[in-house]
Amino acid sequence: MKGGKLIIFSAPSGSGKTTIVQHLLRQSELNLAFSVSATSRPRRAKEQHGKHYYFMSISEFKNHIKNGDFLEWEEVYRDNFYGTLKSEIERLWGEGKNVIFDIDVAGGLRIKRKFPKETLAVFVKPPSIDELKIRLKKRSTESEDKINMRIAKASVELATAPQFDKIIKNYDLEVALKESYNLVSEFIAAPNSSENSETKKLD
Question: Which domain does 42 fall in, by range?
Fold first, then answer.
């Protein structure tokens, strides 16, 4: 299958990666399509199945793992699984799109390792852990305990930043949006690797 390029944005929760990804998706000249992840976590208010996530029960998710249906997956929190279905990437590649991911740090690095030449992996860095906590509280979507879990995880995730191709410091959103656009635009415009993209496999 002939595929486009893969653009990964990873970061601790509250860093602003979703805002950046949504901005890039609106730039039609980039020919981007969003990779919808699967998750076993409960659906939040206003979230739509197939648009924000593919929502599954824990048993459904585990069956997909058993069947080898995921390109990558991770138990991010206890019984909260997230993953990228191979069928999702095949669908978007079939439409001739470049695929953009808003994905967990561990998952993003797994995809980068599988497709090193075709993937741009970007880490979005928040100003500080304290600022991250403020942003998460402003969301008003999670309990104090869940926010504390995310903050603890963020400290671990920040240590992985050097493993990514690029780091965007989201201290000023407008600057971060511009830097992200320039990075992605240049990556997409660059010639494909010498590897024959016709033979890319999602295994």
Answer: 6-189
